[in-house]
Amino acid sequence: TSAGGGGVRGGLYTQTLQCLCSEGGVPASTFAPLLQRLCCHDHEAVPCDVFRYGVLTCAVFSDYIRQAQRLYAEVCCPAEGIASRRLCLNVLGTLKEALETSQGCDANYCVNANTKANTSLEANLKAIRYLQASAKISPLRLAQTMAGAQTLGPGGDMDAKEFEDAAAELFIARVKFVS
């Protein structure tokens, strides 16, 4: 633990994040870029608020990736096990839109820049916004996206791993680096 403020060592923090992601069924190749943003050096002391932010982010990321995997399963052709690139890009566009909407800050919960930042509250709000964003991908929205995919766009197919990686990139791009 760190002197004074409490916390854990960087090595334990990193192991915890790895366990959260792998226990959630997310492949290591998918969560590795997320851990690059969240990890600390083994010898560093990780304050409790940073630990909480990392844990919440990994838990939400695991849920988000499972939902992305289910979305892919809904749009892929069962006989072939692959999906139309055009359709996948439309679904990814919907995911991106949901994530972008979720990044807005509710005026009632924003931390005043002139006061000490409450990173725990901020982490909770961020986790809630990400969960709300993933909930926006409803069966109705998916049906609308599938109907929209009938228009012109790139042809070919997209496999499940490519779709998962693209969905992960959309999420990870919104995660702050821990330094």
UniProtKB/TrEMBL annotation:
Domain of life from the UniProt record? Eukaryota
Q: Which InterPro entries match?
A: TPGS1, TPGS1_C
Domain named Tubulin polyglutamylase complex subunit 1-like C-terminal: which ranges?
Answer: 6-114, 115-176
Pfam assignment, any one = TPGS1_C
Q: Where are the transmembrane segments?
A: none
A single MF term (Gene Ontology): microtubule binding
PANTHER family to which the protein is assigned, alphabetical: TUBULIN POLYGLUTAMYLASE COMPLEX SUBUNIT 1
Q: What is this protein called?
A: Tubulin polyglutamylase complex subunit 1
Origin species, per record, is Nothobranchius rachovii
What gene makes this protein?
TPGS1
